[in-house]
Prior knowledge:
By secondary structure, the chain is of the alpha+beta class. The chain contains four helices and ten strands.
Amino acid sequence: MNEQRFHRGRVIFYEGYSGDSLYYIFYGTVGIYVNYGKNNQRMLAELTTGDYFGEMGLLDGGMRTATAVALENDTVLDCITEGEFDRFMAENPGRVMDIMKRLCHKLRNTTAAYVALCKDVESTVGTDAVDESKHYGFENNDNLAAVHDGQEA
Length: 153
């Protein structure tokens, strides 16, 4: 774990880049953006002291899904890399539990947004979309369902 300082406007990591660490905000504010620096840039979240971010990249090694940017001068972050995470978990069980709870919260919000979007699409497109989908090889997909561990939700 190492402490890093960022000035306002400094990018911490970029969307689409490989993720191998998570960050804890000791002090300051961080914006999480999609399409950062483009005309269709959108802020997904504004995080402050005590928040974590970047945990998905650390846990699954996947690409960053957003860009993180310091929003104020002297933003102080604790960077926890993949190689340090096992020790971090052993030494900080309370913080690890907090990370897990926040991940669950993010997943619940994402699931709720997905379900709402599916309902919007269904109400906007209507049943004709189901009939039309059969022309594209989706005969067995008449209904949308969220699936988790093989169980329909």
